[in-house]
Amino acid sequence: MRFLVFGAAGAQGGAVARRLAESGYEVRGLTRTGKVPEGVTPFRGDLGDAGRVKAAFTGVTHASMVLPLVFEAETVAAFTRNVIEGARAAGVRRLVFNTGNRLPDGETGVAAFDTRRAAVRALRESGLPVVVLRPALYLENLLAPGVLGSPLPESHPGVGVLGAPLPENHPGDGVLRYPLPADLPVAWLGHAGLGALTVAALTGDGLAESVVDAGGPAAVTGPELAAAFGLRYEEQDVAVFEAGLARAVGAATAAEVAATYRWIASAAPAALFGPGPSLGVTLMTPAAWAAAL
């Protein structure tokens, strides 16, 4: 088996590429920067370049796909089409598409949801052996500036999940702030768990043509999550969350991400973020993840 990982320089794709390489597989990482985890062969390219995407698939048997933080419908459709054409030409035996989030059942008017639903539809209609992996929220999101209301350990690099440095005035008031209703249960998932689940979805038997909801071992409410860090929970205003995110990824992208949290707050989808099948992987609880920081 020879693997192609899209977004291998990013947090999600990097976790997959790292897990594959550590497992001894031959891994090629498509990246615009050429930076990939140790043991991964870099392949410079962009999802918008059909020729480079097709070339990246040369000799590949399995592929892991995740889309960048782009939410323009035509652009996402073109990215998806390029992957489909490249995978078909290579005759891939399995393609795992990580949607980046759980997807509501119907159209929402939220581009971050609806463009991924369209990508899933195109992939499943392509005839390719596709596994759709729909992760719950990532524990690494909690490392964004201003979320954890207590200083991180001195040994921690002190950067948010998107690379933004934690501010010097990072609050030490014992509060975990996140833009989710306190009573919404979420099966929080770490990037390492995502990597392991993706590898299991790529290599496991009987999974082709399936949809897998990826999540941690149990769903916890906001107060239960905060307790894992020795903190209390406070629902963060989405506008405050958006303003902090904008400093890391830009205003337009932050607005689209924030729209998903506004939809969640209004729809109160109690069952959307529950745990999924473990696929034989041992997943960390929030308390274990917090202890490992």
UniProtKB/TrEMBL annotation:
<dbReference type="InterPro" id="IPR051164">
    <property type="entry name" value="NmrA-like_oxidored"/>
</dbReference>
<comment type="similarity">
    <text>Belongs to the NmrA-type oxidoreductase family.</text>
</comment>
<dbReference type="InterPro" id="IPR036291">
    <property type="entry name" value="NAD(P)-bd_dom_sf"/>
</dbReference>
<keyword id="KW-0521">NADP</keyword>
<dbReference type="Pfam" id="PF05368">
    <property type="entry name" value="NmrA"/>
</dbReference>
<protein>
    <submittedName>
        <fullName>NmrA family NAD(P)-binding protein</fullName>
    </submittedName>
</protein>
<dbReference type="InterPro" id="IPR008030">
    <property type="entry name" value="NmrA-like"/>
</dbReference>
<feature type="domain" description="NmrA-like">
    <location>
        <begin position="4"/>
        <end position="230"/>
    </location>
</feature>
